[in-house]
Design goal:
Layout (H helix, E strand, L loop, with lengths): L2 H35 L6 H26 L1 H6 L1 H23 L4 H8 L2 H13 L5 H18 L14 H22 L6 H27 L6 H29 L1 H5 L5 H13 L5 H18 L6
Helix pairs in contact: 1-10, 1-12, 2-4, 2-9, 2-10, 4-8, 4-9, 5-8, 6-8, 7-13
């Protein structure tokens, strides 16, 4: 009798996680849109620092007491938080802003499409995780849909791809994000989602300080005008607090391999945002890609009910 409420709560949490699986990519997509929009007036490390410092300031009033109660765990596990901050907010944060300035959207989409595969491989190599044949089929369908979109329905576009320094930085960011995802799930933590994100974001701010000092000395500080403030606030609230908090929630309830598959939706959402914000029409390859990505995600993340 006592197990029913627990099972019901767990089932409800998993249903919420499945819904968030389709919301979170839209939050992450806003990060790339703003990265390109702000490249000419906010240096990349300063942008990452402002974003994550803002996340800390927004979340701290809601989890300060929890962090104080867990101060013993914070002292014990500080190295883990520092590594997660370096991976998720440092390499993946500033690295994406650097890379976005010197590569094409097609290359970024293609490289980030590999992130779920890297997550699956790392989970298997480090912790022995495995996907069922059903989930493997779903991942293959989703990856095929992503390739259809980023190659614009033309396989010959693969032959025209050229990889730059920016591409290598995006690849490093994708690998860093994959490792962040796997460790986030595997390292037990007494903190809730908001408190854990606050600590990791603060760790990211601290590990980026030396690079920020170099950037300020070589490029100078950003101009704090209205467009800078608006861009930073959007980054803090949407791809900062929103995306990372929901990503952490999904990872907790669905696991890193299935959570990583949500990145397959990013090219679809990018096309939708271009249609809504820029008036770009959907092409046939957008519809075909979405028709592969969506059922692929369902197969890869949905576990049939057992009786």
């Amino acid at each position: 009798m006592a197990s029913t409420p627990l099972g019901s709560a767990d089932s409800r949490a998993q249903r919420i996680a499945h819904v968030l699986l389709f919301v979170t990519p839209a939050l992450f997509t806003a990060n790339m849109v703003l990265a390109r929009a702000t490249a000419d007036f906010i240096p990349p490390v300063a942008l990452a620092e402002l974003r994550w410092l803002g996340v800390v300031l927004v979340l701290l009033p809601f989890c300060g007491r929890e962090l104080w109660r867990g101060r013993a765990a914070l002292r014990r596990d500080w190295a883990r938080y520092a590594l997660l901050g370096l991976l998720g907010m440092g390499i993946c944060g500033a690295g994406v802003y650097y890379g976005a300035a010197s590569t094409t959207a097609t290359n970024i989409g293609l490289i980030y499409a590999v992130s779920p595969v890297i997550i699956i491989l790392l989970s298997r190599a480090m912790f022995g995780d495995r996907l069922s044949p059903r989930q493997g089929l779903g991942a293959a369908l989703a990856l095929t849909g992503v390739l259809v979109i980023v190659l614009r329905g033309d396989p010959a576009a693969l032959l025209a791809l050229r990889f730059s320094t920016g591409d290598l930085m995006i690849l490093a960011a994708a690998v860093s994000w994959a490792l962040y995802t796997v460790l986030l799930k595997r390292w037990p933590d007494p903190l809730g989602v908001k408190a854990r994100l606050t600590v990791i974001a603060l760790a990211g701010v601290l590990v980026l300080l030396p690079l920020l000092g170099w950037e300020l000395a070589s490029r100078g500080p950003p101009a704090f005008d209205l467009r800078t403030i608006a861009a930073v606030l959007t980054l803090v609230l949407v791809p900062g607090v929103g995306a990372y908090a929901t990503y952490g929630y999904i990872t907790e309830h669905l696991g890193p391999s299935r959570t990583g598959l949500l990145l397959y939706l990013s090219p679809v959402y990018t096309a939708v945002m271009a249609w809504l914000l820029l008036g770009e029409a959907f092409a046939l390859y957008h519809w075909l890609g979405a028709a592969l990505v969506l059922p692929g995600l369902f197969l890869a993340t949905h576990k049939p009910e057992t009786t």
